[in-house]
């Protein structure tokens, strides 16, 4: 018996839920779902790990910062590590030559970092002074082992000033004040040492502080090898009567007059340490 046309041709079977693709192939939704899940897991892992990686890098940077100043810690073998800091100016000054509150000193440096000074020191317990200080008070604080950081309010960047404030605030034997007319954005002073810089982020800032804040090692000055980097190694930085850190004596204006005390002492009174 004759077969009907198409009688033995099998009919195609379609799987329930499948969608024909443009090429005639079926899309495997289970496979796509698995891929999406894997991508989600990878993204979630990245969200977790990236902050951890950044924290680790920050810790490594902190370690590098510590390592970068370790060689500037004074030792008997290296009493003056500041000698290895490029740009540091060093001079030897006689100590304990005091002037009164009404006298001025004809300093040989600006800002000064040694020489005759007021008998009352500027409080140097991490104070951030908003106004310029009287140099004669500030220099006495250097004689006690402090580092005085000054900045030009017209040329320092806001970011650098914020950085210096955070660096100084609350730190013993550090103090910060503006110094109008400074020939660099910032300058660091310790007794007998000075470093002028363009940026507060310069690594030499921390190197200078490490090398010279309360450096009690003898052998810093060839002129007097028995003395430490600063004269009064047992002196304090706390406030005393005669200097109110919330309202300190203002900076003198203009150049010192002919009656100013010269750097060799002149009418300054040699006084006991204090």
From TrEMBL:
* Pfam families (alphabetical): DUF3105
Question: What residue intervals traverse the membrane?
Answer: 29-50
Q: Which InterPro entries match?
A: DUF3105
Is Membrane there in the keyword field? yes
Alphabetized, the UniProt keywords read: Membrane, Transmembrane, Transmembrane helix
Source taxon at top rank: Bacteria
Region named Disordered: 1-20, 239-274
| UniProt protein name | DUF3105 domain-containing protein
Q: Which organism is it from?
A: Gordonia lacunae
